């Protein structure tokens, strides 16, 4: 039998209310069969933020999966993800416009889809995707926030941006307008790569280097000689990231979703006994 290599995906996710909030307005979700993963950070009074983020996640996943079983399944993944984000925006917007208690709500969104040996990412707002490889960590997405835009234009320094009281002011969100324009990114994958989707409840307290140190230490990625660790270690890494944010004060909810990609031979794979 001819050996064929494919990318296997391990996933783990955790969400925490943080140190100061009484409710959790973050949401995450994924469908391993459809290979789509998402994290959202809601905003709005009372329970509106929770409604916005949970609605965005469920609508994004449902629409993306539905495209796979329809005539749209042959479209490029970038196009299908873009459409799914637009659909999520329409659904959250409709709720916000039609129910007084939800008026003004919205949510950030960052989503990733596996496409063969590529990862495709879309984002709206300031929830982020980080890519980890060979001990390094880089932010893939660009924040849609007032402070980030001032930083990119050179108006603010890194130190001024970090101290700004306007860090929570986002300039683009799901559900706050009739139309939304997500940013789209793509990257080639290698065995051992790790992707982090996270809310700003973490990124206010940890930079890329600190994130890499925590993830690689807790996921066991430094012990590659004995084989890649299992998903339980990714869960430990999620907890370590959340604990680091909470140790620093965690004024907001904190959500982390980690994906690790490994290469495995279909011909040689041994399934566990049930």
TrEMBL record:
InterPro entries: PP2C, PPM-type-like_dom_sf, PPM-type_phosphatase-like_dom. One of its GO terms (molecular function) is protein serine/threonine phosphatase activity. Pfam families: PP2C. This is Serine/threonine-protein phosphatase. Residues 10-261 form the PPM-type phosphatase domain. PANTHER family: PROTEIN PHOSPHATASE 1L, PROTEIN PHOSPHATASE 2C. SMART domains: PP2C_SIG, PP2Cc. It comes from Paracidobacterium acidisoli.
